[in-house]
Amino acid sequence: MFTIDFGRDAREFERAMQTFGRDAKWAAVVATNKVAGMVKERLTAELPSIFDRPTPFTMRSMFVRRASMAKLFAEVGFKDFAAKGTPATKYLRPQVDGGPRRAKRFERLLQSAGILPSGWFAMPGDNAELDAFGNMSRGQLTKALSHIRSFAADRGQNRSQTRKSRGKRRKEQYFAAKPGNPGLAPGIYKRAGAKGRDAQPVLFFVRKAPTYRKRFPFDRITAAVVKQHLAPEFRAALEQAVAASRAKGFRR
């Protein structure tokens, strides 16, 4: 989150306060909120050049907390709430700061199903189906979970030798290879080939968290917009405020 205020350039604001009082304070609120909106627009406009096909959710990931007469600063940042899925701050902030990423929603789902070991992460394999935004297809993930759970249920009910169970298992398309499997790296695989014997990787399970490099120059972009626009917007707003007060015969 970035705070927008006059900071080191506060001397101009302080001088204006001494001369124009409430008019200067009102102008500071107007200018700060206008520049906060500019920052949000600029950061949002940068997203498609930094990320591959950002989703509509990501394009709406910024928020602005506006300044007021009681709070002479505004804040711009990533939303930290999502009714469904992962809040924007959890997957975008690492792109700003760098470092290891947190577990994604589908990884937590795999862990709760007992498929992905606790503390491990999932990386797309060559046969992962990606959506229009380059993310793991929910449809494929749902199908894989359904097949794996169905297989586990058959084994748990000791029905593996029945005709119904054998037929069901012949239709299985996905299976999980857990750590320690002698033939396959840990992950989720899709059966292929004439008899379904070939295993094609959909997800690989890894112990180490994927690491993000710093890709999104959030602070640099914000600081540049503030430096360019805050002082001019304050002067323009102050001029309007003083003119309006004079026209009415009083100051705000």
Description:
It is built from eight helices and nine strands. By secondary structure, it is of the alpha+beta class. A hairpin with an 8-residue loop joins strand 2 (62-65) and strand 3 (74-78). 23% of the residues are buried. Helices cover 48% and strands 15% of the residues. The chain has helices at 10-20, 22-50, 56-59, 88-97, 105-112, 138-156, 163-170, 218-248, and strands spanning 2-4, 62-65, 74-78, 99-100, 121-124, 174-177, 187-192, 198-206, 211-212. The strands form three sheets. A four-stranded antiparallel sheet has the order 5-8-7-6. A three-stranded antiparallel sheet has the order 1-3-2. The chain has a two-stranded antiparallel ribbon with strand order 4-9. The radius of gyration is 27 Å and the shape is rod-shaped. Helix 1 runs antiparallel to helix 2 and helix 2 (22-50) packs antiparallel against helix 8 (218-248). It folds into two domains: 2-99 and 212-248, no CATH class; 103-206, no CATH class. Residues 161-171 have a biased composition (Basic residues). Residues 152-177 are annotated as: Disordered. This is HK97 gp10 family phage protein.
Summarize the model shown.
Helix content is 48%, strand content 15%. The protein is of the alpha+beta class and 252 residues long. Residues 152-177 are annotated as: Disordered.
Structural class: alpha+beta
Widest sheet: strand ordering? 5-8-7-6
Indicate the percent of residues in helices.
40-55%
Total E-strand runs:
9
| Largest β sheet strand count, sense and barrel closure | 4 strands, antiparallel
Q: What gap, in angstroms, lies between the N and C termini?
A: 31 Å
Q: Give the overall form.
A: rod-shaped
Instruction: Report the total helices.
Output: 8
Question: Into how many domains do the coordinates divide?
Answer: 2
Helix-strand pattern: EHHHEEHEHEHHEEEEH
